[in-house]
Amino acid sequence: MIKVLSSQRSWLANVRDHVARPWWGMFLLAFTMISLKTPLQLCAQDYDHFRPLECVGDIPEELRIAASKKYAQELAALGDSAKGREGRARDNFLLQSNFVLDDMLLSGRVLFGDPVSEYITRVKNFILRDQPELQREIRIYLVKSPVVNAFATNSGILLVNMGLIAHLKTEAELAFVLCHEIQHYIHKHPINNYVNAENLKSNAKLLGLNTSDDYVAERNRYSRTLELDADASGFDLYSKSGYALSAAEGVFELLAYAEQPFDQMAWDASTWEWEYLRFPARFSTWPIEPIAIDEGDDDTLSTHPNIAKRRAVIANRIANATEDNGAVFMIGVDLFLDARKRCRFELCDLLLSNHCYEEAIYNCHLLQAEEPESHYLKKVTAQALYGLSTYKNARRFSEAHLDADDHQGELQQLIYFIEMGDGEFLNVVAVHEAWKTYLADTTDHELQAVAAALLEQLFQKHRSTTEWLAHEKPAAMPPRIDSLLETKMRWIQSRGDTTAVEVVEESENEEDDEGKEKDSDVENNFLEWALTDLFADDRFADAWAAQIDIAAQIDDETYHSAHQLREMTRRERLRGIHLGIDKIVLVQPIYKSVDRRDEIPVQYIASEASLETYKEILAEMATRNDVKYEFLENRNLEVGDVGQFNDVSTMLLWFGDHLNGSDDKIHLVNFRQDEANAIIERFGTKYFAWNALIQVTDRMDSWTRMSWLAVGCGIFPLLPLAIYKIAKPLKTTLLVTLVFDLERSEAIWEDYRILKANDQPAAVRSIMYDKFSQIH
Amino acid sequence: MRGAHRFILVIALMAVTWTVRAQAPGFLGRRYAVSYNCFFMPASPSHYGRGQSRNYAGNDGFYFNVSHLATVERTMSRRSVIGLGASLMRAGDPRSRNFYRTEYGRSSIQCLGIVFTSKMYPFLSKGWIAPLGPYFRFDLSYLSAKGDFEGRNATSRDQRQHNGIAIALGVGATSVIKGRLLMDYGARISFTDLPTAANNYNTLEQEDARILFATDLIKFWLGLGVLLGK
After folding, report:
1. What's this model's pTM, rounded to 2 decimal places?
2. Which residues of chain B from 117 to 146 reach within 8 Å of chain A, CB to CB?
3. How far is B180 from chain A (nearest CA, A)?
4. Edge-to-edge strand ranges of the sheet holding A628-632
5. Tens-place pLDDT, residues A231-252
6. Which of A128, A360, A702, B71 could form a disulfide with A384 if both were Cys (CB 3.0 to 4.6 A apart)?
7. What ipTM score was computed for the predicted complex, to two decimals?
């Protein structure tokens, strides 16, 4: 986009130079500005309906060539230094780093060409403006991760996390981080650190490193030296770049508060209140702890020095500097703020994916100060409440809920609030938020699915609540109730249910579900009119009525008993299933060979070569079963295939979210459904599959080995068999196939086969044929 | 012939059962395979019946008899294969070193059989799909045996015809080579029943039955086959 704008501007300048008459010039200027407006609008982000960032432009070469080729190139560049023990360590490092980095680059979480990456690249280019060679060698990629971090690789790739950009205060801080990472690259710190660790490992006894803690401490001592070295030399580069020297210290502030939200702003429960839904005071009377940071913590076992040491080095350098005339922004404050804002919005999405729901809500709360009407932020809040409600209803709340004692600052208030509510409370509040936001924009299908799922949950998990939730507002405004006793008394008065409190008291020490439900009903009766504003809308009223019908049907129908379900599962296992799929998209198949007996367990080169054979088998077996197929991969693409690259990224993130949020008890609605729907349309099928083959070779454990030896010695004719068994490595091959119905946002078939043998072609072909025959 | 009727009825019932019980096919589909199996039977354990006779081969050491089986097999499901074949077995052939000798002369037997084979591949959960991998085997055979007795010093000769049934149970494993060739190996035990006339104890007929039972009792096999179609 930047290229497009610059070319249009130069064309405009040429025209203005050549046109003498002022009115004609004005006309052309006006015409050009109108034509310029379109790309400007396209470039701008709509924060009301925020869309996640995508890759833009040509796919860089390093994302198009195989990792084995990159490894070979770097190995050749090493030359003679790849010989000897140290050379072998270098070789191992290059092998692992290239393949691991390749996996990272193709994981769907790495962005290039997007406005934020472009901005960081411009900062990098500005810093290295006098070193064009280095400027070209270092390439920037943005990583979709909420963690405040950046990495340098041996090949010159700098990976910058979105979490870091979201937490920055100034462009100068980014510049200092880049300078630090550039020094890691220049001084080859990653490879030197690895070689040092390998040397320590092989000479551990000689160096008196008797325990693993000794080894880790010594290894990390060297790593800390490298970090301090990168800080010092990075500051040299930074001081020549023109940025304000004093601003560099802000980076340590940023690191100190890296675990905290990017800002602090009071949160209170009134966010979700309205006229007839007011939370009792007990929900918000918890004291919050101020944030306390220990910058001088013990770093003996840490790879990085503590912040106090690092800050001291840089503060000293700043103090000794003769002058500090630099600026805090060189590329542009607007571009910086834009990049940071985009990353802060992206954080919402990333936190949702990681099931950090309370942090996602708080993140939205912070962003709403700037974008109060953003539908996206309201939607993320509703989605996060949905996640919390789902886990709470499944009685696995601790998996999704933060521990208030582990957090400080304003976020703690939100955590306390969520902690106070029970499943019924959370479900009702989530229904209210989700439906309110959905009814404001009924074109949002993602939110529609969430709202429907929440209502279904309410009817399935809290049926009694649905019976006493009022459909119409009361004639008079009810008084605010703060104490639990008052709450209980109101329940008795409103329903004449004198047994309610007795039930609550009796059930306190009993595991009685009925009693607990009653207890919950009584305590939450302030929710009575919570949904009355929604009932005023026919769409909600209809959805409610539909749920009543469904609930009645469920009552009438006989559920499959546990025995029947077991029998169905057994039959399915024996006979197989019949999915009836005619066309399927095979997304990014994976082949990994692991030999645990080796120094480097993952057989990278062999795995890469075998992947092609595995894909051939997939293709052949699909064809044999008359299943039309297409591969959707981001490996070996052409320069212009950025659309496909983005599709793969979307699918990988969709799969990741699904696998992260679904098991036998919980099924979360996928939050990337809009992107998924676009891909369904492009491929003409809603069925997508992910296939993986993992082969693991291991040696027999000593106990089994001894047992076989005893058998061989005891029963002499079995000795050859015993020797064979002991000598033969144990091979296990895992073949995974997950078939997704993207439209319904669910995995319709999950098939895991464990073959107690190596990946012999006949067995793999046999299993894959069987899988595709069931898919068809 | 009652045995033959029963045999055919059982085959028909089993075939129907296996055909309808599974939706998913076996190795690359429901396929036919033609295979040849060579059975090796250790002669040494064939000391049959109350010390009346002994294995002649026992004097020369451990020895194997050989029988042959050609089958056409059909993979019916992911776990089952059924087949029909013909077997040929010779035991106690006087021309070979491995014959059975009675106190009165030499007895040999030649046996032709129609064999219904069924294989069950139980390790589906471990990734083995018929006809690949380890399996259990059940064979039901209708046998037509011809016994031949030659008296000591060739003083007498007697030939007899018997019909009977054999049931065999075994374990084996199949490998598929190049997606087409089958290699098979395993071991089985077999129980052969050649009906003999009542009150005819210790006659030549009994002798034939014992020879066949002992010879057929334990077998190891090695087989080669070809998958047909596709």
Report:
1. 0.80
2. 124-129, 132-133
3. 9
4. A628-632, A583-595, A687-698, A730-741, A746-755
5. 999 999 999 999 999 999 999 9
6. A360
7. 0.74
